[in-house]
Each structure stands twice: as structure tokens, then as C-alpha cells.
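assembly run, all chains below
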Amino acid sequence: MSRTVLQLLRAEGPMAPEEIAERLGISRDEAAAEVKRLHDEKVILGYRTVVNPEKLGEDTVVAIIEVKVTPQREVGFDAIARRIYKFPEVRTCHLISGDYDLLLLVEGESLRQVASFVAEKLATLEHVHSTTTHFLLRKYKEDGVILHDEDESERLIISP
Amino acid sequence: MSEPSNQPSQRVSRVVADLPPSGIRKFFDLVIGREDIVSLGVGEPDFATPWRICEAAVYSIERGRTSYTSNRGLMALRNAIAEYLDTRYGVNYHPATDICVTVGVSQAIDIALRAIVNPGDQVIVIEPCYVSYKPMAILAGAEVLVLPTFARDKFQPDLERLESLVTPRTKALMICCPNNPTGTTYARSTLEGLAEMARRRDLLVLSDEVYAELTYEGEHVCFASLEGMRERTIFLSGFSKAFAMTGWRLGYLAGPRDVVEAAVKIHQYSMMCAPIMAQYAAIEALRDGRREVEAMVAAYNERRHVITRGLNRIGLPCILPQGAFYAFPSIAHLGLSSEQFCLELLAQTNVAVVPGNAFGECGEGHVRCSYAASIEQIRTALDRMGDFVGTLRPLERAAAR
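ok done. output:
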């Protein structure tokens, strides 16, 4: 019933080997070796900070874009996906089942910037059939993290 | 004018008047109004009840399910409990006759004791233990015999000493495993020894297993699953600890048909039934709450290591607890009683822990530190406790001389 080193880092971000060792009841060396292995084998690719954009006061615009594409012989969806995800505006790119093929998260400084990316770059690509753009209004929960403050329950200070 | 409080009131029952107040009661008054308290004094999860469970209760209210239930509890809940006990611990209880849903485990303990105790019967409790066992047994009319356990034995009961307590009037033994306040679990061999004695000396066993899901090393052994124990055990458990549902007040007992029947008789007259919303919540907990339980258990497990290493580091010797969410370090070498230690610690550092003697005389020399608190809170508490222990070192030397 204990978390693995990976589960711990995934949930809570980078951590000193001493800290990992204490949390999981293992030795410092075991913890350090496992962290090294996870990095060496590229299981862990990096660490990010989860930010609440509302508190940051940053006015970036995020669009969720559904893209219909035509898969190509031999390379399937990979070639067109690659062509799309290489743009730095594309923060996320998933191939999904259902009515459309690719789901993108595109970020820009303004509505105009995102719109022009869609109109000039994305929609004009060969093999891209159609796009549907949804502008993000509010984030409630991201990657398992609830973004608004929840009330803390008041427990008794002492109870049996 | 009311009577002076130190005069025992003539109007109060002698049995109740003679009951000692809970050892943690005085801390309630002390902590009121204080701010910046870091509490390791809490006997409940610091997690809110998992949302799916809350949502099920809300839905039950929306559908207008606000009535009494059958005395024994909703059949659907008893079915879920029976299935859970079977798949998880390999014990079989018939949902129609062998299970009663109660208002927390505390009520289950109460009606179980009242169901079996005749005036003059003896009940053995193994201390340190939960604060209510002894008073409940006394209120049920029993004479209570105490088996103390000690850190040097990792708080395992000494079976020979236990056997020497048993008389022809001894009716039952109460056990709590994993244990509040020590965090101990009993070795399988110990449990089998207890079972063997129960068979030989014809004892009933009240087995409080409310912390069973919070077992960190090895598998929990359900006492009723041991040879011949299904017919001698009153299994007591509830939803408070594993599912973080303390405020819902929902527990249950399971046992031999005649005993459960008797307990239900008391339950129907004194309580009628457990609240229906909580029962619907509990069905959801058993049906679909496993993932949330596992996440909470993993979190407690990490805190367990952090607090145990931390306590030992600051000079409070502590064995690694195997279950529940309590560490029970020794403070005996510091020259203060458990109660003095807790009062001073609170006064000087605003850290709340519970004196070990609240859980029985043999808990003296220990304090109970709950690790149902965030890692940050645990670390802050440990830092402050470390400073406090540092100030006591001269006293410790004086005591040694």
C-alpha cells in the first residue's frame, strides 16, 4: 500500500532523495538510484508547476480545437500530427476516437493571435479537413488539481 | 444558585458519578481560543469524506429518502457489508440475521456489551486502548479487568498474564487491532493464542477492527476468520477511519445470530436505526470507494515513516506503528508525567498531543501523536517538539541523578 517513487514524484513534483527516503521508509541510496533510473530511462521527462491563471492575472487565451484530418498511407496520423504539434502555439496534441481526430490546446496572447494561427496555419494544412475552435472560459480542475480554494473543515483540536 | 461542582450530585447515578472523566477532556478547555495550534491530537482523518460518498448521500436526500430504515439497517447496506467482509477478510455473515448497522462503532460497542453482560460478569480490556471500552463495560454492569501491555513487548499482550486474569465469571475479552493509541497490530501467532484461550476458557471476543483498512505491513487478520472464532467473535467496525466518515456516525457489528439478535433488541429501543443518509453514503463507500481508500492509506503510510523517524530523531523513542494513524513515543526519560509533558508542550509550543495515560494507566510515560495531519503540519510539530525536548534535557539529567 505504499506509493512508488514515481507515483510520489508525479503527484508532488521534484524531491530530494532524503525526502523520498523518509516518506517511503527506504534508504537514501535506494531513493537516489530509483530517481536516476527513472530519469535515465526517460520515464520522467520533466517537472512542471501547476498555476492558477486567474490568480496570476495573466491574460493568455487558450483555445481547445477539434481537428479532422485525413490519415496518410504508411504513416497514419503521425505525420500530420507531427506537423501540427511542432508549432509552439500548440501546448497539447492528442489523437482521439470519435467525431474528430486531433484535440489541441492552443495558447496565445490574444484572441486575434489564436484566430490567426488557426486561420493561417492550422486550417490551411494539407490533410486538415476542418477545425472547430472552442475558447476556454474558466479552468476548474487541471490534471487532478482543483483550482479554486476549497473550505477547510474544522476538526476538533483533540479527539479520542 | 447551582451546587458547587466538587460536590457529587445526589441526583446523578452513582455508577456515572464514579466514572472517571475522559483523560483528554481537560485539553478541550485548554485549547479553546488558542491560535496557531498544530494538532497531533486528533483521532480522525484529516481528509474530507471522498466526494462520491458525499454525492451519494446528497442524491438520497434529493430523492426524498429521509425515513427510518429497518432496525438492522438498509438491506442493501447489509448486503454490501456481508460481501465486503467475505471478499476482504474471508468471513461469512448472513445479511438478514448476523449484521446490525449502528451509529458509529462506539454504539456498536455499547450494544454489544449490553447484549452479553450479566451483573457481575467480568470483561477484560487490553490497555492502552480506546477511551470508551472501560466506561462502556462498566455502564453495561461488568467488572473490568485490565491487561496492561508495554512498549518493551511492542504492546503485544502477554498471553500467560492474560490467562491468569480469567476467572469463571469472565465473559468476554475486548481487543482492538490495529490499535488506538499504540498503532500496534498483533502478530498472527498472538491472535491465534488469544483464539485458543477464548475456546478453552469459553470467552466471547469483542474485536474492534475499525482501523483494519489502515494496515501498513502485512495483511490484516480478521479475528473472526480464526479457527472457531466466527461463533465467539463480535466483529465491530465502521466507516469513520477507512473512508474518512467520522461525522457520519456509521458503524456496524457482525456476529453469531443470538448475540446480534440481542444487540438489535437494545438498538431498536434506544436508537431505532442509524441515519438513512449515512447508510446510503456507506453503500457507495463499500461499492466504489476503494480507490480513495488506497490513496488515503498511501498518504498515511508516508506520514507514518516521517513521524516515526522524526520522533526518534528528536529523542522520543518510538516503534514504527503497523496500523491506524498513531505514533506512541516514550517520554518517560524526560522526567515529566505524560500529562505534564502534554500540558507544557501545549503551553510552550502550541503543539497538541494526547497523554498516554488517557488510554489506561500503562500508557503513562507515552504520548499519542496522530499522523492524520499533513506532512507540513507533522514537520512543524516535530520541530517545535524537538525544541521543547531540548529544554527538558537538563531535567532529564537531574532525573537520572
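The CA atoms of residues 105 and 251 of chain B lie 5 Å apart.

The two ends of chain B are 52 Å apart (CA to CA).

not gonna interpret more than that til we talk
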